[in-house]
Amino acid sequence: MKPRFAIVALVLVTALFAGSYEASSQERACRSPDPVDTIKEMSDAIYACWKPPPGSAGMSLTLRFSLRRDGTLIGKPRATYSDLGTDARRSRAFVASILRALDEALPLPFSASMGEAIAGRMLAPRFTAAREGAS
What we know:
4 helices, Fusion Protein Consisting Of Minor Coat Protein, Glycine Rich Linker, Tola, And A His Tag, Chain: A, Domain 2
């Protein structure tokens, strides 16, 4: 891979995952076999499998992880930020819902070019449950 392309891909991944995801309708179904060829398709594929538990509105968690070119996880995800409130039971359910989403979404069916661009890059998606009444 050319160094310039690698830098552009890394900047795009960082920009995409720097924001948070508000639970809403998805353009992609969970576990869709359609090839993932863009950063947006990658995030849609992961978020499509996430179902925040009841009572988690406003909770947020950022995970840091890397993927192989075949779409499988490298190592274990690590939390880098959390705003989970004070209810330990709800917090555990929220974190479990995110880990379950990763388990269901992976491996991602990367196209050859996407797999090459994303392999080993550090990702840091933020999962934020929509606040009640938010659209």
